[in-house]
Design goal:
Helix content: over 70%
Structural class: mainly alpha
Radius of gyration: 34 Å
Largest sheet: none
Number of strands: 0
Number of helices: 6
Length: 168
């Protein structure tokens, strides 16, 4: 919604500039002042064509300048998110995406950070269960093999449940 408001405001300002130029040009007296310069016009539209061209050029220049400056609010955060996601894709789940609070894509970065936090928690659970299985395997020699095997099977079921939370 903020992006649409910004685009609409650029269009509104452009039209406002055109309207102001048109108003000041069309607010002159057509009568005596043009007769002194021997200006011959068939109708009032002959006077308005230069105004329309001037207003169009002013709006075009304003639109081009705005379109050159406006994408930086989106391109900068996108570039940062892209670089951070590449690092996260390599397995660095300690990474958080940091975006300035007034940037356009702050909500996207916050959602990605929530997702990364969830992945961290799930992988931590898998790691803890794997550690339990390793500890049980080391105790197998000291305890009875049947009880150790039951504990390993229970830990394995827990591990499979944790892995099944991922849709692969």
């Amino acid at each position: 919604m903020r992006l649409l408001v910004k685009i609409w405001s650029i269009i509104f300002v452009s039209l406002l500039v055109t309207g102001i130029i048109f108003y000041f040009y069309s607010d002159i007296n057509v009568g005596k002042s043009y007769r002194l310069f021997h200006v011959k016009a068939k109708n009032f539209l002959d006077f308005l064509v230069p105004v329309l061209v001037c207003g169009f050029c002013a709006s075009l220049i304003l639109g081009v300048v705005a379109s050159l400056l406006f994408p930086y609010a989106i391109a900068g955060p996108l570039y940062r998110i892209e670089k951070d996601l590449a690092d996260i894709g390599e397995g660095n789940l300690r990474k958080d995406i940091k975006i300035r609070k007034w940037d356009e894509l702050k909500d996207l970065a916050d959602s990605i950070n929530l997702m990364i936090g969830g992945l961290r928690d799930k992988i931590k659970t898998i790691s803890d269960i794997s550690g339990q299985i390793e500890g049980l395997a080391e105790k197998a020699a000291a305890e009875r093999p049947d009880e150790t095997l039951k504990k390993i099977k229970i830990a394995n079921v827990n591990l499979q449940e944790a892995i099944n939370k991922f849709k692969l």
